[in-house]
Write a structure and sequence with these properties.
Shape: globular
Helix content: 25-40%
Order of helices and strands: EEEEEEHEHEEEHEHEEEEEHEHEHH
CATH architecture: Alpha-Beta Barrel
Largest sheet: 8 strands, parallel
Radius of gyration: 18 Å
Structural class: alpha/beta
Number of domains: 1
Number of helices: 8
CATH class: Alpha Beta
CATH topology: TIM Barrel
Strand order of the largest sheet: 3-18-17-12-11-8-7-4
Number of strands: 18
């Protein structure tokens, strides 16, 4: 059996497999399918400082090669998360990464300060949220904004910080460099790509929000390319995600330079996926006589 341990920001993970935020809740729904003890980490659904109702329905649509979602980061707020979700996850031998969202810098600070005093291991900061003070431009779409929010939250947090990057930018490496320069402990990418679907019979948008985030296998080649670019632009660890549906997909991300991988939309298709990724990566390494998963991380140049 190969060694699957990886290290991010001084924290040891038993393997490089995680869940992608927003696709796994806090693990409660998946507990009957997946042994959470076998996962490297559970990355929770986004948590805001107050409850968010999310967008109006319909807000999910199946499309060729994946799905569109415009959930709008619906969540019960950080207080419920601290009272209910963290105690649930603490029952398991897996790392806990809390995903944080907000509409202003103050929103993010509020959540980060509260979570700093809890038993989570790290925080993943979703900077694809609309910045109300910037006219709804996402925090992650300007390098200056990425730098500023990363620096601010690093100063406030007593836990390591992962910045989740948006692919809806001209140059993803510019955002990665900004996050690294501001002190991010790691980055995760990619978040969803902006997409749209029209019902031609009704002559109307399928999603009430008009646009939604595209995820699923169709975006994987784009995600692998962006992970590779960022791995060659920064020196901090990368958590790669975007359309992972099989152990082979996960290995591809690792070879492109990701230290860890996260399964997202395909959990809805195959709720056993994350556990299968762990065993599948192990089998791949054994089959090729590789003793340590770290040997393949970034091996393709």
């Amino acid at each position: 059996m190969a060694k699957l341990n990886i290290n991010i920001a001084g924290i040891e993970f038993k393997n490089p497999v995680m869940t992608a935020s927003g696709t796994f809740g806090s693990g409660m729904e998946y507990g009957e399918f997946v042994d959470l003890n076998k996962l490297g980490a559970v990355v929770t659904k986004g948590v805001a400082n107050v409850p968010w109702p999310g967008n109006p329905t319909p807000r999910v649509a199946e499309v060729y090669g994946g799905m569109l979602n415009a959930i709008g980061l619906q969540n019960p707020g950080v207080d419920v998360f601290m009272d209910r979700d963290i105690p649930f996850l603490k029952q398991y031998d897996t790392r806990i990464i809390a995903n944080v969202c907000g509409k202003s810098v103050e929103d993010y600070i509020d959540v980060v300060e509260k979570l700093s005093d809890t038993d989570i291991d790290m925080m993943e900061i979703n900077i694809s949220c609309p910045n109300v003070k910037e006219g709804a431009i996402a925090f992650g779409q300007k390098a200056e904004s990425v730098f500023n929010i990363t620096k601010t939250l690093k100063e406030k947090s007593r836990k390591p910080i992962i910045m989740k990057l948006s692919p809806n930018v001209t140059d993803i490496t510019e955002m990665a460099r900004a996050a690294e320069a501001a002190g991010a402990d790691a980055i995760s990418l990619i978040n969803t790509l902006t997409g749209m679907k029209i019902d031609i019979e009704k002559r109307k948008f399928v999603l009430a929000n008009k646009t939604g985030g595209m995820s699923g296998p169709a975006i994987k080649p784009i995600a692998v390319r962006m992970v590779y670019q960022c791995a060659n632009a920064v020196n901090i660890p990368i958590i790669g995600m975007g359309g992972i549906a099989s152990p082979e997909d996960a290995v591809e991300f690792l070879m492109a330079g990701a230290t860890a991988v996260a399964a997202g939309a395909m959990n809805f298709v195959n709720p056993y996926l994350t556990e299968e990724l762990v065993s599948g990566i192990d089998s791949f390494l054994d089959r090729h006589g590789i003793e340590d998963v770290n040997e393949i991380i970034g091996c393709v140049k």
